[in-house]
């Protein structure tokens, strides 16, 4: 299956989206007023901690986390164009590397980090057993893993006709940017999110199904009302 080997599943889509995505991400409601507040709320104290963002995109989380005290965090992403935007956004305050998470994190030694953050990225990784094992390997004992993905309930409703219980490729047209882009990803049931995490040696500390903020209401009332009663994303916090 594409994504296990060969070209990363969403690389072409994100290369097309990168410029428009980066321009909008600081105030785009689903990012700025929904996922980002939820993910940031799960962070421990960042001062003095070695931090990796696995899938840093245009660098908005790196910018936020350096403001919260992270010193020289590391960001990796598969998209060169996204990394160019991250470089412009964070400058010399972070180290950036082009990495395909589907191939692991061999660039980094064991126990290199205290915190790993991966917001809205793992939907593009096929083998979660592999990537959670890699997160565990590069993380120091007692380290924290925080990640968000599309909610399995939302994902299933958006793609009717597919089995909820399967792990497989799916596609969705993204609107709201400078062009329509077909974005492929992998969908999976809740058990295929949690079991690989536990099997990799993590202890689940918290599950957060976020609600949109009041700023979201002001930006898009219709979508605010929808997300206030129906889940879109889901966040997890785990400890090694």
Automatic annotation (TrEMBL):
Methyltransferase keyword on record: yes
InterPro entries assigned: Methyltransf_11, Methyltransf_Superfamily, SAM-dependent_MTases_sf
GO BP terms, alphabetized: methylation
SUPFAM superfamilies, A to Z: S-adenosyl-L-methionine-dependent methyltransferases
Keywords: Methyltransferase, Transferase
The protein's name: Class I SAM-dependent methyltransferase
Gene Ontology molecular function: any one: S-adenosylmethionine-dependent methyltransferase activity
Keyword field contains Transferase: yes
Organism this protein belongs to: Puniceicoccus vermicola
Span of domain Methyltransferase type: 52-147
Highest classification ranks of the organism: Bacteria, Pseudomonadati, Verrucomicrobiota, Opitutia, Puniceicoccales
């Amino acid at each position: 299956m594409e994504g296990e080997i060969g070209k990363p599943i969403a690389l072409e889509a994100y290369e097309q989206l990168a410029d428009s995505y980066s321009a909008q991400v600081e105030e785009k409601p689903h990012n700025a007023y929904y996922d980002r507040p939820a993910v940031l709320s799960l962070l421990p104290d960042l001062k003095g901690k070695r931090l990796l963002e696995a899938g840093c995109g245009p660098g908005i989380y790196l910018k936020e986390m350096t403001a919260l005290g992270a010193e020289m965090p590391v960001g990796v992403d598969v998209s060169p164009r996204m990394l160019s935007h991250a470089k412009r956004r964070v400058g010399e305050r972070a180290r950036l590397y082009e990495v395909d998470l589907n191939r692991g994190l061999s660039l980094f030694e064991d126990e290199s980090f205290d915190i790993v953050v991966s917001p809205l990225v793992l939907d593009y990784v096929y083998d979660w057993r592999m990537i959670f094992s890699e997160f565990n390997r590069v993380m120091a004992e007692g380290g924290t893993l925080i990640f968000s993905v599309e909610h399995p309930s939302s994902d299933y409703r958006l793609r009717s006709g597919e089995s909820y219980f399967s792990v497989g490729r799916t596609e969705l047209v993204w609107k709201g940017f400078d062009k329509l882009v077909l974005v492929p990803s992998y969908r999976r049931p809740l058990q295929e999110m949690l079991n690989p995490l536990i099997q990799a040696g993590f202890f689940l500390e918290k599950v957060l199904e976020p609600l949109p903020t009041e700023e979201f209401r002001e930006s898009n009332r219709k979508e605010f009302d929808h997300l206030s009663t129906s889940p879109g994303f889901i966040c997890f916090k785990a400890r090694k």
